[in-house]
Design a protein that fits this description.
The chain is mostly helical. It has a domain of 135 residues. The protein is built from ten helices and no strands. The radius of gyration is 34 Å and the shape is elongated.
């Protein structure tokens, strides 16, 4: 009886006494890259300048589209084309891809003299090793700043200078680039809205005439936009609207 009792106790206690806790599998790096070592080498004094240059380059690449859009004629062109489509009441015709593509190539056409000067005075000397990276950047800003100064309005520039806490500039060189860019964008939006208002007037007159005619005929249930749209399109085609709009937009930057 005692032997049977000891046997039962041994069977219950033995597994827990002799069992070992499961070992945790070691973390493995599937890529085989020493992450900690790479980070330590990146922040080492001898490699810090290279790391900062790489970070600056990545930041510049991410901001390049916004810089190219907001420092060129793209803003005015795309806003005016959007107003034109709304004035015609053609819904999504032309589609956004067509309007943006047209605005992009018109921007390249308008900005080509400026970019040729940037290439001649900044990029090519930097490629030949005649100037440093900082000097090339400063040279590239000169033609772009001159273009923006030709289009910026004094009111917007004065407002941005006051907001930045700076006094009245004596020369264009006294205006920082980070102050000039928002003033230029506000000026472009104001100009685009003024052009959009002028574009709306003839189409608004057509809408009012059509709406008055339908009310006089007792056809109040018929949406005026369905009737006025063909008249807007034929008027726009007869006056050669695309040439007028695009031609005046391009000339407004000269």
């Amino acid at each position: 009886m005692r032997i049977l009792l000891f046997s039962l106790i041994f069977l219950v206690v033995a597994p827990s006494a002799f069992s070992q806790p499961p070992t945790q599998p070691a973390l493995q790096n599937p890529l085989g890259v020493d992450i900690v070592g790479s980070a330590e080498r990146a922040i080492a004094p001898e490699n810090l300048s290279t790391t900062l240059t790489l970070v600056f380059l990545i930041t510049a690449i991410s901001l390049a589209p916004a810089f190219l859009v907001l420092t060129t004629s793209f803003t005015r062109i795309v806003v005016v084309l959007a107003f034109l489509r709304q004035a015609l009441a053609t819904q999504q015709t032309p589609p956004n891809q067509v309007l943006v593509g047209l605005a992009l190539f018109l921007t390249l056409f308008i900005m080509m003299p400026t970019y040729e000067r940037v290439n001649r005075e900044a990029i090519q000397p930097y490629i030949r090793g005649e100037v440093s990276q900082r000097e090339a950047f400063e040279r590239a800003l000169v033609p772009i700043r001159e273009f923006m100064f030709k289009q910026v309005r004094p009111q917007e520039l004065k407002m941005m200078m006051e907001i930045s806490g700076r006094g009245r500039p004596n020369t264009p060189d006294d205006v920082p680039t980070h102050v000039l860019i928002p003033a230029f964008v506000l000026s472009e939006l104001k100009t685009a809205f003024m052009i959009g208002f002028i574009l709306y007037i003839p189409f608004l007159i057509i809408d009012m005439v059509v709406a008055s005619t339908l009310m006089a005929m007792g056809m109040m249930m018929l949406p005026p936009i369905f009737v006025s749209l063909p008249f807007k399109l034929i008027l726009f085609v007869l006056v050669d609207g695309w040439n007028l709009v695009v031609g005046n937009l391009v000339r407004s930057f000269q």
